[in-house]
Amino acid sequence: MTKTGAAKKTGTSVKRTSVTAKVPVETDSVDPGSVDQGSAETGSAADAVAKTGDLRKTVTKRASAKKAAGKKAVAKKGAGKKSSAKKGLARKTSAAEKPTRRTVSADTGAVTDPEAAPTEPERTAAAPEEASAGAERMSTAADEPDPAPGRAPSTPEQAAAATGTTLAPEPSPTPEPDLASVPEPTLDPSPVSASGPAQDPVDPTETVIPPTTATLPDPVEPTESASVDVPEPTAPASPTPAISPALNATDRGRLLHGTHHAPHSVLGAHPVPGGVAFRVFRPFALGVTVVAGELRAELHDDGDGFFSGLLPLRDVPAYRLSVAYDGAVQDVEDAYRFLPALGDLDLHLIGEGRHEELWQALGARTMTHQGVPGTRFTVWAPDAQGVRLAGTFNFWDGTGAPLRSLGATGVWEVFMPGIGEGELYKFEITRPDGSRTLRADPMARRTEVPPSTSSIVTASHYTWGDEEWLARRAQVPAHEAAFSVYELHLASWRPGLTYRQLAEQLPAYIKDLGFTHVELMPVAEHPFGGSWGYQVTGFYAPTARLGTPDDFRFLVDALHQAGIGVLMDWVPAHFPRDEWALAEFDGRPLYEHEDPLRAAHPDWGTLEFDFGRREVRNFLVANAVYWCEEFHIDGLRVDAVASMLYLDYSREPDQWTPNEHGGRENLDAVAFLQEMNATVYRRVPGVVTIAEESTAWDGVTRATHHIGPGGFGGLGFGLKWNMGWMHDSLDYMSHEPVHRKFHHHEMTFSMVYAYSENYVLPISHDEVVHGKRSLVSKMPGDWWQQRANHRAYLGFMWAHPGKQLLFMGQEFAQGAEWSETRGPDWWLVDPAYGAEADHRGVRDLVRDLNEVYRHTPALWQLDTDPAGFQWITGDSAEDNVIAFLRYDADGSPLLAVSNFSPVVRHDYRLGVPDDVPAWHETLNTDTARYGGGGITNPAPVKPEPQPWHGRPASIQVTLPPLATVWLRPS
Q: Are 14 and 23 spatial neighbours (Cβ–Cβ below 8 Å)?
């Protein structure tokens, strides 16, 4: 039947409803799926419309007929065709059965009984004289609003749907129409209104919207109503009624209060009986229009920022939203039409605590998802009732941006289309007690400059140029390579410089001094500058004080291209209590231990990580990998390891609980450190991990699978700071030379345990702050003697087994303690300063120490092998002299002699190997250009066949006062 024929048959013109677009009827045949399978010739929506006059009579008869007559009609119909019986069957129920509302499907003629929907015993139906007009509206759809819940129906179909009656044809058979003439519905691209029910939220189970028909999927507009007698309801049939598109009160309340765990299940577009329901939550919006191609449908304003509408569509289309605000209209994607942007494998690995690239799964990540650019936001908050996203893009009101919970992993996710780099954001978390807290992203890869605390959406666009460095750094293990470290605090090394400005100065300075590596004090974001970075809140973000993450990459790249390795201090032991950061992140202890005695760090007022929780361990292990892979860091110096290893660290007897074996070892921390080291070494060849561990814990640098005497496997570090050597040697040097003979063992005891671990000899920032004085200021005597002691000590340190680390400012004998606010006293090496030569001389010594060190394998090749060391004299306490030999793998020696007395020792005899024909002085810390007295051994020194110090030959050398001398075979 053509459009003209349809209009002629009903005696009206074609119109459109407020829910759907105009429907230009086509001549295509009806989809077979929309026809009752009981008969291919009956049950079409066209029949229902064509027989409106007959149905009008039937409704009246059926409303006044007796139950027996109903049975007779059913039996009579049952003798006919099965499909007609499906369409007109009315089954009797028991007298005690409660009447329910029914809906007659216009395309099948079936009766629907929603079980959850409350009903009334009587409904109203259209007056007979209005049936023709009602049929016209069902067929052609007039431009009036939807019937509000509770309004009386005005057509026989609505009356039947409301009362639960069936619409049966006249007893005599009616010729069936040609199905090929039934038109398919199409949508006119003209703007239409998709208005929903009244603004008050209505439970879908209490509101029944007439279902769509095969011809026109529009709700019927009621006109006048008349009361009809309602017969007893029959048993429910299969078709499902259309439902209200508006959210119910429960979902509305949860969304408004930030406690909805599945906003995507109720917002967005969803297929429902009767079409596709669109629901949008846009606080402060004046109106929302769905735009699907050329179709525009304005949604109904349900109040409180909710908008909804039911469009007669078979499938969810690709659509956008046109959102009207006061003075502006935004054309945007609907964030709640997208599938999760985080895969099942990611969730599985997170749940297992084994996601080694956690930064790829959590946090803010720009991406193109389902063909749309935007940013995926994910956060781990398992105890939260709800999580919402607040940021610059929604004026820091997260009400309309809830995240969905992705199962039992505790991960919340939302993909926000159109959000890109540079946007500021935080997570608004509803705690278990219902209160809310605004938190920075624990996985944020960029932050605001402190004291501001927001996270920033970022993506790296940096192109690295350090391929050669990365290719060769794994060739030799760190403990068997030259390893001389310059420690610095980036923010104060040259105050005011950015990462990129530092890249112009720092590599050249380090290369000139000859250090092989730099060690950066913590770079991760920290709110309090006075903590020097050791109270971290942004574990995945380089501090914004000096620039962007790509700027930091630029600095690392510049150092690598200058041949300098980059180590970084890493702080997994504890974190501060800032209320916007990790502390009780989702309302309960999450990153910290749930036991307050285990959580509180007694020394620093911070919180310790819960190393026994797999997700927390994963957060930290992945963080170690992150810095090495994303920023090409060559090594991590792990801070405060001792505080992690012992449950009773800095605690009184009643402030800690023993482990499961009754011991004081923190077994969870041990497992974490082993996992971290094993993972980093496996994933990033060539890196080194270094432990700042101040106790005698066995196996810090032993492989994790090698079990030690204590029953533990090694912790797996590559190197360990030798805190014992540092404390003992500095204590020795602080004494006046006349008293040093009583402390001689402090300089020799380190060799008792020198090969128990792979050691670094650190003169770090910790030794030159908080009243400890700078290195030169620790030395006794006048200014000349202080500098001489300083130089002699550095010479002894560089020759001692182990790697070297020196903090900035000590390379030129700065007299003042370090301050993070002013940095090193660079004016001391300004040529305009009168005593500049004194400080320049020490710096020249450091340069030469590194130069000789790098080119003398005996000083580093066998640092961890006892075969690389032999005492010459370790007991000359009266003389304050220490002498020893260092060997390389080929047996080539270096003789190091230190005279820590202020007197010149002429012709001082030392036993030496008899297979070296002559020795020459390679380095002398008393050289005049270093600021010394210039007492040297300029000529080669030949051995004499006179046994000494237990050796078959000996030499006589002049030992300068307060100096160290290195000699090598000529």
A: yes
CA 331 to chain centre: 29
Q: Regarding beta strands 869-876 and 881-887, do their DSSP bridges make them parallel or antiparallel, or are they unpaired?
A: antiparallel
Collect all residues with Cβ–Cβ distance below 8 Å to 181 and sequence separation of at least 6: 1, 5, 27, 29, 46
**What's the rounded Cα separation, in Å, for the pair 597 and 594?**
9
Closest to 959 measured CA to CA, from 933, 936, 943: 936
| Residue 46 contacts residue 182 (beta carbons within 8 Å) | yes
Instruction: Specify the residue for token string 């011809």.
Output: 215
The predicted-structure confidence for 741-770, as pLDDT tens digits, reads as follows 999 999 999 999 999 999 999 999 999 998
Residue of 441, 665, 692, 746 marked catalytic: 692
Q: What single letter denotes the amino acid at residue 122?
A: E
Is-catalytic flag, 639? yes
pLDDT at 711: 80
Active-site entry in 218, 639, 746, 926: 639
Q: Are 632 and 365 in contact (CB under 8 A)?
A: no
> Which residues, including other chains, have CB under 8 Å from residue 2's CB and lie 6 or more apart?
25, 27, 183
The predicted pLDDT at position 597 comes to 87
Residue 56 pLDDT greater than 80, yes or no = no
For residues 70 and 89, give the distance between their C-alpha atoms in angstroms, rounded to a whole number.
10
pLDDT at 757: 96
Provide the β-strand partners of residue 374: 367, 417
* Separation between Cα atoms, residue 880 and residue 963, nearest integer Å: 11
Give the pLDDT of residue 241: 63
Q: What is the mean pLDDT of the chain?
A: 82
Query: Residue 637 — φ and ψ, nearest 5°?
Result: -95, 110
CA distances in angstroms from 916 to 446, 591, 721, 872, 912, listed in the order given:
59, 61, 34, 15, 8
Residues in contact with 543: Cβ distance below 8 Å, sequence separation at least 6, in sequence order: 447, 450, 491, 523, 524, 525, 526, 533
The 8-class DSSP code of residue 420 comes to -
Q: What is the DSSP letter of 221?
A: P
Instruction: Compute the average pLDDT of residues 173-193.
Output: 41
Q: What is the pTM of this model?
A: 0.77
**What residues pair up with 963 in beta bridges, in sequence order?**
899
Tokens of 757: 């671990």
Q: What is the pLDDT of residue 170?
A: 41
Least Cα distance to 960 among 916, 930, 940 occurs for 930
Query: Is the distance from CB of 440 to CB of 581 less than 8 angstroms?
Result: yes
Q: How many CB atoms lie within 10 A of CB 768?
A: 22
Task: Tell me how far apart the alpha carbons of residues 577 and 74 are, in angstroms, rounded to a whole number.
Answer: 77
Contact between 182 and 215 under an 8 Å Cβ cutoff? The reply is yes
3-state secondary structure 226-259: EECCCCCCCCCECCCCEECCCCCHHHHHHHHCCC
pLDDT (tens digit per residue) in 631-647: 999 999 999 999 999 99
What CA–CA distance (Å, rounded) separates 187 from 291?
13
Residue 640, token pair as written in the block: 């405060």
Q: Tell me if the bond preceding 596 is cis, omega within 30° of 0.
A: no
In this structure, are strands 635-638 and 688-691 parallel, antiparallel, or unpaired? parallel
Residue 215 has phi, psi (to 5 degrees) of -90, -50
Q: What is the DSSP annotation of 770-820?
A: TTS--HHHHS-SSHHHHHHHHHHHHHHHHHSSSEEEEETTGGGT--SPP-T
Q: How far apart are CA 155 and CA 682, in angstroms?
A: 75
